[in-house]
DNA sequence: CCCCGCCCTG
DNA sequence: CAGGGCGGGG
């Protein structure tokens, strides 16, 4: 689901996990999961952006994210270990955009500001896509794929 | 107050 | 990932 939405609202989460009886703890736990997902995501982005800069890349346009990219593999082993489903192309676009945002920010030395990532977060949070209907209820999806 | 996102830590 | 703390927003 993270491949579609990096910032799902609590109501979204409840919609896509109908087989879960939510309470304060369960809800905040799921919220926490996505927060952790985002942290890993952004950390990878910053790491690869700085690496590109160190490697002499001068333009953000030189940076791309494909299914063959090291960055993509790093993310995929983290979110999609079993590699059991096709990552949407839109995610690659968002990832590439994020990578370039970090690259430009670091290249412009904006990272001197302690809160320089805030501006990037504000951009990325607007790039969420709609989650496919088939993602509702993991248990049902499991039945479909295993029967 | 509660909810939510981020930071930091383990 | 989970916990705890912090800050912003409703």
Structural summary, described in words:
This protein is mainly alpha-helical and 147 residues long. The protein is built from 6 helices and no strands. The protein has helices at residues 10-16, 24-54, 70-79, 89-107, 117-124, 138-146. Helix 2 (24-54) packs across helix 4 (89-107). The two termini are 22 Å apart. Mean pLDDT is 92; it is low at 143-147. The protein binds a DNA duplex (10 and 10 nucleotides) through helix 2 and helix 5.
Relevant terms:
mainly alpha, 57% helix, 0% strand, DNA-binding
Compute the separation of the termini in Å: 22 Å
Mean pLDDT: 92
Spans of at least 5 consecutive residues with low confidence: 143-147
Radius of gyration: 17 Å
Structural class based on helices, strands and sheet pairing: mainly alpha
Please tell me what the overall shape is.
Answer: globular
Number of helices, counting only DSSP H or I runs of 4 residues or more: 6
Largest sheet: none
Helical residue percent? 55-70%
Number of strands: 0
Order of helices and strands: HHHHHH
DSSP strand content? under 5%
Layout: helices, strands, pairs:
Layout: H1 10-16, H2 24-54, H3 70-79, H4 89-107, H5 117-124, H6 138-146
This protein binds a DNA duplex (10 and 10 nucleotides) through residues 7, 9-10, 24, 27-29, 31-40, 117-118, 121.
Short structural description:
The chain has 6 helices and no strands.
